[in-house]
Fold these 2 entries.
Entry 1:
Amino acid sequence: MSAKESAGMATHVLVIEDDAPIRRFLQAALENQGYEVAEAETGRQGIERILSRMPDLVVLDLGLPDMDGMDIIGRVREWSQVPIVILSARGQENDKVNALNAGADDYLTKPFGVPELLARIRVALRHAAVLKAGGQEESSRFQVGDLLVDLANRRVFVGGREVHLTPIEYRLLTTFVRNPGKVLTHRHLLQEVWGPGCLNQTHYPRMYVASLRHKLEEDPAEPRYLLTEQGVGYRLVEEYGGEMPADRGAAASP
Ligand code: CA
């Protein structure tokens, strides 16, 4: 189903990218899904078009000729919460982290594929819709594959078997559950789970993600749910791509 069909009207995406072939690739891929696409080749033009066209989402290349991507995010965030998915080159982990901490919603590393692009855009649009609707659309349970988090009763199940988490592990897991599919930086996790006083305890997320994986993942070394975003943070998958029988989810419910 295209975004157009589901929303009843076209979702408008603005692509800010100076590289013409990548811009054409993005336009074709997005239009094919029913998105309405506008383009900008420079940061200045991009900001202008965000103001004049009020897009539903912005895809922003960090390497633009006239402006630093970080400055663009900062400027836009002064007056708009439009979701921003950044494009960056491999090896620019620091840039990604800075962009996310500056208010970007997610990122794609070049080269990227269409499914990845569409997944990032879907997640960012959904988060924006929830925010617009006045905050937490807080569903009482989260399920992906055979992982079930029952938020109402603070219980966690894997394949129908209850898993016991420490309070910190549970708080960490629910931080991911509230942001399914979205990359969360180390800094974001420290802030949310341990509080602003612990921002320098940079080993905490790694340590506690490892212990969560031991409890939730079949093979903690090859996680299926809690993925590492190298040099950036972690992401809880929202769609499980593995071969899980369709009715397994229902059977896994307590
Ligand atoms: Ca570029």
Entry 2:
Amino acid sequence: MHRPGPRARLHQLIPHSFRARITMTVVALVAGILLAVSAIVINRLDAYFEEQEEGALSARALEVGSIVAVVAAPASAAEPVIQAGNTLSAAVAERISSDSFLGFLANAVAKADVTIEIGGATQTAEGDVIVTAAPGGTTTAPLTAPPEARESRETLRAIATFGPVRSPLALPWGVRVTLANPYTTRVYTLATVTTLLAVTALGALLAALVMGALIAGRFTRPLRRLSEATRRFGGGDLANRVPAAEIGAAYTEVTDLARQFNLMASRLEESVGLVRRDRDRSREFLADVSHELRTPIAALRMNTELLQGQAGEEATTRREFLESSRVQLERLDWLAQNLLELSKLESGLLALDLRPDDLRTTVESAVEQADASARRRGVDLAMDLPESPLRVRHDPQRIGQVVGNLVGNALKFTPRGGRVRVTLRPHRDGAQLEVADTGVGIDAAELPHIFERFYRGSSANEARSSGSGLGLAIVKSIVDMHAGRINVESRVGQGSTFRVVLVRDPRGVAAPAASPSIPPAEASVASGLDDVANSS
Ligand code: ADP
């Protein structure tokens, strides 16, 4: 079996989360700084203490030297310390080598091993004293007293010379004292300082760990929240966002990231919603189409079956059924034409033939085409056009279709003796077209739906049954493609007024021509007179 190498194992041991890495980095940084500072401090202190102890030892050596000199000094000039041939006076030798005296020197004064040399002394030109120990003039006294608290032996050495002492009858003499291995508190003090530093460092490291974890937590929390949101988003929860409170609390870069994520999420959700709504509408549309097709087809089938039976034998009945079939076929044809038209409009495949023509011509010819129908129905159709040309960039054929459909509806829903008035006038955005009738009117509850495909008013009358419910949907599509807007005002029993506002140049306005579906009619119909903003 494959075993991970030491490097791989080390890699496994190192935490991989951003938070742990930040914490580790902070702790490592603090630890490094503390280690460096401690090393420098301890090193400097050690040198300082050693210097101090050396100084103190030298001072004590001098002290010992002077004591020895005092003790050695003769009581009278008749007793010289050093005689010819560097011979030490026996009395002096005895005085300075007494055990109690040496013990006193080593244990009480020097606190170190003491070596005393006494003999002839000279002074160099530089002022250095050279003591030549006389035979028998060297005495040593080891430090025997136990160390006091905090004291320990040190391998230090200090030498002090005393002399040359001159007297009229004697040779100049001197003392050299060497102190070694004294008791000092250096090691203890250093150990105390080191312990103190270590404890402080440990505390600082702990604080760094806690602070590091807190800082890292604060730093990474928004990131974690972001990745959580991304995960949920990826899992299909499209409404999931990074909460605003957490965005505000984060750092600039993370805030930016979170804002961008939320923006992206919103756009995506919107797009997905659009696609879904579209899909639903397509399904609905298909269902509507099938439903609409079934009625004439069922009627045709029934007529055919009846004609095949006994009813077909009688000439009058046959004519009746054939006439009924013709009407149904016409209806099917009308339906197919309108469906084709609507699907072309909605798919955005249809390019408008925009021309800066006089709108009056377009309206006039469309209204004239409805003249015959108006006369047949006994409805007064009037037109009110501006005196001067009203140039608005439009597709004459399509706008003609809008006028035709609106006037057609107005005539269809206006009883004999009624009036339909088509008015065209300039508008601050371009032009306004109004088709007003004195017909049956539309119920307020139905108003929001009349621009939907296949929607037909509920109050059944003959006029209504003849429609396909596609006319206003087509009108709305065409107006949308022209970046225009449409609204309707109506009162049951009094009549309806449809208003279309066309902009001067639709090319400059983002027209939703490519929108594959008719937007919900609720959004585009006002019950009042206000212009309704174009669907978005
Ligand atoms: P249709 O082809 O059935 O007329 P439309 O889309 O043109 O379909 O109209 C939808 C519905 O809006 C109609 O069935 C009718 O109820 C209502 N409607 C449209 N125009 C008028 C009008 N001028 N007066 C009254 N009702 C109208």
